[in-house]
Design brief:
Elements: H1 2-29, E1 44-53, E2 59-71, E3 76-87, E4 93-103, E5 109-121, E6 128-139, E7 144-155, E8 159-169, E9 174-185
């Protein structure tokens, strides 16, 4: 009788031990769920094209970049080898070329760097114009170009102005030259 009680007790301990040991192995094999969500990694694209349209559905600007990368920490977007076409409400078209660009989180201002050229026809004159600098900011809503760096504004045949700092309204052909202004006008 004691043997039966001892055998029964040993069998109960063996079953309980197997159950506990199996549960511990399953818990160790089950991966733990992360306690924090994964960090947003942003996006990147090659040969990217961004198009912003106006209320009429026509493009306000088209931005092409060889490479585009979003930085999720500050929602900025980095651009490489930038080419833009900017259209305003009056039908004026300007092209913008730069080696790099940065779009801030609002998306209205694009900071362009590296051999920046903004080309178009001066409204009312039909003369080609070129604004060139190493650094220019372009507001895509107002079409205002600003720079605190040396800038060259060339238009027509043989006319150019060199300045440090500029504010140019592409829509209204209004230009404000900041300092150290030198002009060349050839007949």
């Amino acid at each position: 009788m004691i043997f039966r009680i001892f055998a029964s007790l040993a069998l109960v301990v063996l079953i309980a031990g197997s159950i506990l040991l199996g549960r511990q192995q399953r818990e160790a094999a089950t991966p733990q769920q992360p306690t924090q969500p994964a960090q947003d990694l942003g996006y990147g694209a090659r040969d990217a094209q961004l198009i912003e349209t106006g209320p009429d559905g026509r493009p306000k600007y088209t931005l092409n970049a060889a490479f585009i990368e979003q930085h999720p920490g500050d929602d900025s977007v980095e651009l490489h080898t930038v080419h833009m076409i900017v259209n305003d409400d009056q039908g004026n078209r300007w092209t913008v070329d730069a080696q790099r660009g940065d779009i801030a989180h609002g998306g209205e201002d694009i900071d362009l760097t590296g051999d920046v050229h903004i080309d178009g026809l001066l409204p009312g004159t039909q003369e080609p114009a070129d604004i060139s600098s190493e650094h220019v900011s372009l507001n895509t809503q107002t079409h205002i170009v600003t720079s605190a760096d040396p800038v060259t504004l060339a238009w027509g045949a043989g006319r150019s102005i060199h300045t440090v700092g500029i504010m140019a309204d592409l829509k209204d052909s209004h230009v404000k030259l900041e300092s150290d202004v030198h002009g060349i006008f050839q007949p």
